[in-house]
């Protein structure tokens, strides 16, 4: 029996835990947010590179050196591992201008002549056009394949590289991976066809499309694991 005037305070010592998985869901949400921010940063850097490329490539001599500089810094823009991307871009641009300005000009002249020849014979009449196109179309594909191969090996090329050494390395790359390079040529030709219909695409992809295509070619093929083998 409880004495009068005496009250008993009973405390509830039950431990209330959070719902199962709350912390895990918070971590997953934070990881997703970080992943989205990283992808946005990559897109922003790529668009900035494209803008700088368009401005610099307005000069005839600077077109291909700007493309080479973009290719050299593209892996860093995608990986987000190195800061000061624009400073590195202009350093690589000065290097490309010093090393390759004359061959780059020759490449520009050859590209213009080849495009003019394709356009001329595609709109010409007579049986000669079929012979001319039978020569020019495979030649164009070969040149684009070598160009993509050169871009693919460019990020790993030393600063002492010459035109001869780059051409040799690009040729070896093309011989070792002919089918992926052929696919890259198809992608590039398809994009050129779209850009001829919608010229605005040149502002957003004239440098990025070849650079990203070559970057994809430079990635080693993914090795199959036991998870890829179905029983």
TrEMBL record:
Bilayer-spanning residue ranges: 47-70, 100-122, 128-154, 174-194
Keyword Protease: no
Record-linked InterPro entries: DUF624
Official protein name in the record: DUF624 domain-containing protein
Pfam families found in the cross-reference section: DUF624 (PF04854)
Signal peptide per UniProt: none
Top-rank lineage group of the source organism: Bacteria
This protein's UniProt keywords: Membrane, Transmembrane, Transmembrane helix
Keyword Zinc: no
């Amino acid at each position: 029996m409880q004495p009068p005037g005496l009250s008993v305070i009973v405390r509830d010592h039950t431990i209330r835990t959070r719902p199962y998985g709350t912390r895990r869901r918070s971590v997953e949400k934070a990881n997703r947010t970080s992943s989205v921010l990283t992808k946005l940063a990559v897109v922003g850097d790529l668009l900035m590179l494209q803008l700088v490329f368009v401005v610099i490539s307005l000069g005839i001599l600077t077109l291909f050196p700007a493309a080479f500089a973009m290719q050299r810094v593209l892996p860093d823009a995608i990986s987000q591992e190195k800061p000061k991307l624009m400073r590195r871009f202009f350093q690589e641009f000065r290097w490309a201008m010093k090393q390759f300005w004359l061959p780059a000009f020759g490449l520009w002249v050859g590209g213009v002549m080849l495009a003019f020849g394709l356009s001329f014979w595609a709109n010409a009449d007579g049986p000669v056009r079929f012979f001319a196109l039978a020569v020019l179309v495979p030649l164009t594909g070969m040149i684009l394949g070598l160009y993509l191969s050169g871009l693919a090996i460019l990020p790993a090329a030393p600063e002492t590289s010459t035109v001869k050494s780059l051409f040799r390395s690009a040729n070896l790359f093309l011989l070792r991976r002919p089918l992926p390079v052929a696919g890259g040529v198809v992608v590039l030709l398809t994009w050129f066809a779209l850009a001829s219909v919608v010229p605005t695409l040149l502002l957003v992809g004239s440098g990025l499309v070849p650079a990203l295509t070559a970057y994809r070619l430079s990635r080693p093929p993914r090795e199959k694991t036991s998870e890829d083998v179905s029983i």
